[in-house]
């Protein structure tokens, strides 16, 4: 099979959850290492493959908490924590010369609840 034309990597929203009961939680250092491995893998597909990293979106804690409460659950992710995962994506992009779509900043990371 020929390599893809474009690969987008959009991980982090679930990885950044702070629930001890969640299997999707990935520690920040491991998350960044995983991104670096993914970039290396995609680059090995060939120089014609375009790669874009996408930061996780910000967390609107007020709205998410209301939604979780309606399901009988508790809030398990916070914007201040997710911002660290977004920063890791930006760091990997800069270090490895990969384009980054900063969804975190584009959607107003650092929600004030308004």
Q: What's a concise summary of this model?
A:
The chain has 114 residues and is mainly alpha-helical. Helix content is 43%, strand content 11%.
Please describe what this structure looks like.
The protein has helices at 28-44, 61-70, 79-96, 103-106, and strands at residues 6-9, 50-54, 99-101. It is mainly alpha-helical and 114 residues long. It has a single domain, classed as 3-Layer(aba) Sandwich (Rossmann fold), CATH 3.40.50. The chain has a 3-stranded parallel sheet with strand order 1-2-3, with helices on one face. Helix 1 packs parallel to helix 3. The longest helix has 18 residues, at 79-96.
Features:
Rossmann fold, 43% helix, single chain, 11% strand, mainly alpha, 114 residues
What is the topology?
Blueprint: E1 6-9, H1 28-44, E2 50-54, H2 61-70, H3 79-96, E3 99-101, H4 103-106
Parallel strand pairs: 1-2, 2-3
